[in-house]
Amino acid sequence: MFGVGLPELAVIAFVAILVFGPEKLPDFARQAGRMARKVREFANEARDELREELGPEYADLDFKDLDPRTIVRKHIIEAMNDEDDEVTAAATPLAEGELPPWDVEAT
Questions:
Q1: Closest CA relative to residue 16, chosen from 4, 5, 29, 6
Q2: Distance between alpha carbon 83 and the CA centroid of its chain, in Å?
Q3: Among 29, 30, 88, 97, which residue is least crowded by beta carbons within 10 Å?
Q4: How far, in Å, CA of 97 to CA of 90, rounded?
Q5: For residue 99, what are the CA distances in angstroms to 40, 46, 86, 106?
Q6: What is the torsional sign of CA 11, 14, 20, 25?
Q7: Domain spans, the chain
Q8: Which sign, positive or negative, has the C-alpha torsion 93, 96, 102, 106?
Q9: Is the separation of the CB atoms in 94 and 100 below 8 Å?
Q10: How confident is the model at residue 9, as a pLDDT?
Q11: Does position 7 have pLDDT exceeding 80, yes or no?
């Protein structure tokens, strides 16, 4: 959850008690919960509307797939797999007495 651990949450709760006071804190927490629920509903509605507008080809669209890190990671893994396939296809054993290919420009 946003990279916030238990110690950070404890500090945030302590500061919230000091700033808002123990009598106002439950109301503030209730309002924050309502706001989080509204934001989640808004995001879900936007996702559903985007899927509907794009059509049935994108019915399984996930916003995580649009993350640039995910896209780059996916393409790198695909390129590595393709390279492995090319290497294994090109690596045929030499016949007995056959010399490996000689590349004049390699030396």
A1: 29
A2: 24
A3: 97
A4: 19
A5: 66, 63, 21, 16
A6: positive
A7: 7-59, 61-90
A8: positive
A9: yes
A10: 83
A11: yes
Residue 17 amino acid letter: I
Let me know: does 71 contact 64? Beta carbons within 8 Å: no
* Type of residue found at 33: G
DSSP summary character for residue 36: H
The residue whose two tokens read 């045929």 is 92
**Span 33-64, pLDDT tens digits:** 999 999 999 988 988 888 888 888 877 777 77
Name the token pair of 6. Answer: 């238990």
Hunting for tokens 């996930």 — which residue is that? 62
pLDDT at 102 over 60: yes
